[in-house]
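Support request, please re-run this one:
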Amino acid sequence: MLQYLHVKNLALIDEIEVEFKKGLNILTGETGAGKSIILGSVNLALGAKYSVDLLRNKEKPGFVELGFYVKEPILEKRLKELDVYLEDHMAVLSRKLMNGRSVCRINGEAVSAKILKEAAGILIDIHGQHEHQTLLKKKNHLALLDDYADEKVQALKEEVFELYKDYQFYKKQLNESNLDEQSRLREISLAEFEIKEIQDAFLLPEEDVELETSYQRMTEGKRYSESIAQTYQYTSKEPDRNAAELLSRAIHSLQGISGCDQEGDSLINQLIEIDSLLNDFNRDLLDYAKTFEFSEEEYYETENRLNLINHLKAKYGNSISEIQEYLHQREEKLLELSDYATHVQMLEKKTDECEQKLKKASESLSKVRRKEAVSFEKDITQALKDLNFLDVVFHIEFQNIEHYTGNGIDDAEFYISTNPGEKPRPLAEIASGGELSRIMLAIKSVLADKEDTPTLIFDEIDSGISGITAGKVAEKMKTIAKNRQIICITHLPQIAALSDSHYMIEKISHENQTKTKISHLNYDQSVQELARLLGGANITDSIIDSAKEMKDMAKSEI
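Re-run finished. Output below.
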């Protein structure tokens, strides 16, 4: 579950940190207090795009951090698959937001935004104010059914996807195999030319690297040789002024103190050793100089060979290994072109085989989906009745797509009727905004037992509802919160009254500065906030009594 949220230097937030609890966490506040900023901060921590305009102080970085306590082995396993490892069951997701860039981290280790999003998807599910609009898009209906069916369709979906890739591959090859005889002969001629050009080069593995090194050495060889020759002059060759000659004279001069005492003999021996080392150095220097000796013919041959290889690279690949791979492909192509009729027959056979396998797997997937749809319809219908859709009819209409896809051959759409005697029609045609919110909540409640995500965030999912319906929504959210941590931003007292933990978001102005603050409310403070939600600006004693009664009744029903 989400244990804490820490935000710095974003929009109206200077710095806040809030600890969340198990069960139903409710966030309330005046319009414009910054509720959307809180949710926006969470989204930023999970990898959403951001603008530098969000930074409160442009001279400082923004910072968002989410701390999750993870105790479920299946979630830990899924995180490990992303190379994310827990520390004392904690996963800390953070993002530092700077001008033009951001740095994402998990447990202090830098990760890509992609990994941050994938890890976040395992730990938290956010339902924003307008997410219910996704129900209006028919393409999302099948995905929701698949989420419900879960492991019953997963293996079949993977099989269909792999078979679809094979089918598309051979189908594409077959469609491209429509050469007339003249075009076939041109292709053969081109393939033969390219094969011969590469084969005639007799390329060796890594030959280009070795040639580049030799060519560079030869190109720079003259300059290197001059430096070596000048050094040798100073150490051994310069008449009367080279180091070897001067050192020999020094030894001869110092011989005069030989036998004087032990220290004098030691100095003579040191000088003799230096002379020996210098002689060894001069011999090594001469040997090293020989490595830069080359003929003009050798230089010319190396240059021409490099030019040839670079010419082939420009046409067939960036390295010798890529050129050899291209050669292999062209040799296979030449075989196909030489016996083209057999090749086309093979493609036709492969395409047909793949299509038959794909057809069988797609039909099996469709059969399982239609079977699971019966249970899905039943569960959604009951969830909708719990949300005050008293005479609702909900079912899924299936049609077969005329062509194969990587997701099978099914096209599914939700149909619904919310009034007695009314024929079910497509969801997009009849549902209002408030109804869509409740339908999405019904779906979330049904999927809650199917999904592993421990934390769900709802941002004003209660939009467009009130009265008895609001109470039903509150009860449904409380039910979900028995098995999942719920964080809900709401403006309805019926929902806020059922909170396990109640937080108030408020905007504070001080010394020409406006900041957003979030506070955890105790019982009395929660009653006061409920009274504000009930009565607005004019809070009377009777409204406070009603708020207290609402709070106490909610507590007694838990």
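The CA atoms of residues 63 and 142 lie 38 Å apart. The longest strand covers residues 393-405.
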